[in-house]
Amino acid sequence: MLLTIADDYHDLSRQAAQRAADLLKVSPAAAVIVATGETPMGMYRELAALKQRGEVDTSRLRIFQLDEYLGVGDDDARSLYGWMKRSFLDPLEIRAEQVVRLRGDASDPSEECSAFDRAIEETGGLDLAILGLGMNGHLGFNEPPSDHELPSRVVALTPESIGGSARYCGSADAVPRRALTAGMKQLMAAKHSLLLVSGERKQSILKRTLEGAVSPEVPSSYLQRVADATVLADQDAARALDSARG
Ligand code: PGA
Fold it and tell me: By alpha-carbon position, which residue is closest to atom 7 of ligand 1?
């Protein structure tokens, strides 16, 4: 695993977009799993600007949804697919047929997750995972405890994640209690992954992710064992790291 420290959020977003663009130049038909959350929004805006300038071709990409609230359909304002569509798919002119979904309102959510894993397998695995870091170390909604072997599945959200999502759903009461998530196994097997971490409030969980014990209690800590994972953190997030102290 590699750590890159960016000057600030803008620098982090720019570097992340450039890395993704470089990879997509080499692999224009890449399978990419895409996080929502606040952190990658700057990266997606930068990527859209690169696309406008003709520096990124998205026409052959295969996109995988990282997570979704259980019971939430596309018309629901809380839909993570809706958020991904507004922030990533539409600006990058990616068509619905290019996307493999985790549908929150699937009639059989467990089967939806199994079919999702089969689709990843059939495509030859993920080429790029774009991830954010939860305050509790979750990746997607792989809530602690989650080990590195767990497949995509339906999970119960922890109080910490419910609290974290409250600002996106209006209130904690409006946050669904369960979700579908891409599995740790599928994420850890991605050929490249990019974990984006920004802001002072992530200092402690970033430190546990990079310098703590590898443990299901901090699902993101498994990235320590992934050679082709890059953690891109801004200085505000990285300040407490031993490596940042030199
Ligand atoms: P954030 O969310 O980017 O909004 O901080 C990260 C996460 O909870 O996965």
Answer: 134
